[in-house]
Amino acid sequence: MIAGTPFEFADWSPEIEAFLVRQLVDPGHCAIADVREVAAQCAAGRALCLTHPFGLVIVELKTSDGGRYDLRIRLAAGFRPGAFQAAESALVAIAHDIGAHTMSFWPARRGWERLLGPAWSKRGEDYVRHVDGQSR
């Protein structure tokens, strides 16, 4: 368990890569090269693979403006519909626990604005939410 959540660390594996390719690779959205780039970042220790009963996410900690930290979701895929909603509070808890100010992701597919609650805002191409109790 990570930060008291159902998430666990996972080592990158061919099975994880195959799952992400099956779930995410779609012309015009996510390419196999994107999955392989994330695999290389995991292998180099610059990104982490986290599993949850409903799916998995690949995250990295980035420094944002002002030296604050952002938990960046690089790739995410669910084992069933509603996986993001089921895991969102756990991701917020992890981000908060490691001292991140925000959590963000670039949506590879359209329609996220229908799924996200009012805590999320759009910043350029990214969706961002504060996790430290601060307002947007």
Secondary-structure map with pairings?
Blueprint: E1 8-10, H1 14-24, H2 32-43, E2 48-52, E3 55-63, E4 69-78, H3 83-97, E5 100-105, H4 112-115, E6 120-123, E7 126-130
Parallel strand pairs: 4-5
Antiparallel strand pairs: 1-2, 2-3, 3-4, 5-7, 6-7
Could you please describe the fold and organization of this structure?
This protein has 136 residues and is α+β, with helices and mostly antiparallel strands. It contains 4 helices and 7 strands, in the order βααβββαβαββ. A 7-stranded mixed sheet has the order 1-2-3-4-5-7-6, sandwiched between helices. Helix 3 links the parallel strand 4 and strand 5. The relative contact order is 0.16. The mean pLDDT is 88.
